[in-house]
Design goal:
By secondary structure, the protein is α+β, with helices and mostly antiparallel strands. The chain contains 10 helices and 7 strands. The protein has a 7-stranded mixed β-sheet with strand order 2-1-3-7-6-5-4, with helices on both faces. Strand 1 and strand 2 form a beta hairpin.
């Protein structure tokens, strides 16, 4: 039974290492030369908001062909498809005139956020970020948005969550600016909500960084190092998803698409300002994490120096006793005071007196 105990406890000690390794694998497992395989959704959920300044129609469908009539309408149609299935995506893209390369990007996974313009349509691919309160990690969901004449197609992977509830609420208000404008303003509103949600996620991460910095400053341990490594990986996810959106919005500002109104460009400039600030904020968090790691290493070195200082002081204090004992322990016939009745007590006294004097001198000089 005793021989089995080390392996028993080592099994539990290696759990965190396995979790960290799996997280690293998730972050780094992107190879653009290998065609990724996507799991087909069991079912799709389609929601359509068809609106104008005077009317709003909200419908939900389960079959993709139910959305086809909205192509011919003069009103603005937002067709949101939750759940990615190859057959459905290809069908709706073919009907709405979406280029085959854009269709391929919609079906892909692990894509870098980007903006393309094909067939006079504007295509945006980026990730929505969420903060998992239980695992203290950042999760991402790819969303693809296609802007055409009087319609916006959006493709999401997860039907259980998105960041567009404020947008749906604005659509329900008859006099809202969203209802008065064309489809390009809807695209702006979607991008604006996605970017604004980046700040909410980074705020959560910022709280963790602040807590970790306080912990490392007060009392750091091996758990602190594990948390530093975890947060640095989350910073990689933020940087990877936020930074390319800057180029995406800049591409929209440079676009000459007929479906982008000049009046809406100023709103995209506002999104561009927000994403620039988000990029700077992510860089600041990364710098803070580097500082926290340096602080942890400094604390470890400081503790090691304190241990070495104590060991050095103890060694110095024991040196006189070692020398005196060595002298009187030599094998000579004649040693001064060796046969004196108080010689032993004198040697013992010196062994305590000299270290005591050394201790006083070291204390006065502030060596410890």
């Amino acid at each position: 039974m005793i021989g089995n105990r080390p392996s028993k406890y080592l099994r539990y000690l290696s759990v965190n290492a396995r979790v960290d390794a799996e997280r690293t694998g998730e972050i780094l497992s992107i190879n653009p030369t290998i065609a990724p395989t996507r799991e087909e959704a069991d079912k799709i959920h389609i929601s359509v908001h068809d609106y104008s300044a005077d009317s709003l129609e909200v419908q939900e469908y389960e079959k993709i062909d139910a959305t086809f009539p909205y192509l011919e309408k003069d009103t603005v149609s937002w067709i949101n498809i939750d759940g990615i299935r190859k057959e459905d995506v290809e069908s709706v893209c073919a009907h709405f005139g979406v280029h085959a390369l854009i269709t391929e990007d919609i079906l892909s996974i692990g894509q870098r956020p980007k903006m393309d313009e094909m067939n006079e349509q504007v295509f945006c691919l980026l990730n929505m970020l969420y903060f998992n309160e239980e695992k203290k990690t950042i999760e991402s969901e790819q969303i693809s948005i296609v802007l055409g004449k009087n319609f916006v197609l959006s493709f999401q992977e997860d039907a259980s969550r998105d960041v567009f509830n404020p947008l749906r609420h604005k659509l329900s208000i008859p006099k809202s600016q969203l209802r008065q404008r064309s489809a390009d303003y809807l695209l702006y509103s979607m991008l604006d909500l996605i970017v604004d949600n980046y700040y909410l996620v980074m705020e959560k991460v910022g709280d963790l960084v602040e807590s970790l910095e306080d912990e490392v400053s007060r009392k750091s341990n091996k758990r602190s190092l594990a948390r530093i490594n975890q947060l640095r990986k989350e910073m990689i996810i933020i940087k990877r998803n936020v930074s390319p959106v800057r180029d995406l919005v800049a591409g929209i500002l440079r676009s000459e698409s007929d479906w982008l109104d000049d009046r809406t460009i100023k709103y995209f400039k506002d999104v561009h300002d927000h994403i620039l600030l988000a990029v700077d904020l992510s860089d600041n968090y990364r710098d803070v994490m580097i500082s926290v790691q340096d602080l942890y290493i400094s604390n470890v070195n400081l503790k090691l120096n304190e241990v070495m200082k104590v060991m050095t002081v103890v060694t110095c204090l024991l040196a006189p006793a070692t020398v005196i004992g060595g002298i009187f322990g030599m094998n000579f016939d004649v040693i001064p005071a060796a046969h004196h009745p108080y010689g032993f007590y004198a040697a013992i006294g010196l062994m305590f007196l000299i270290p005591g004097a050394m201790l006083v001198i070291m204390k006065k000089r502030g060596w410890f």
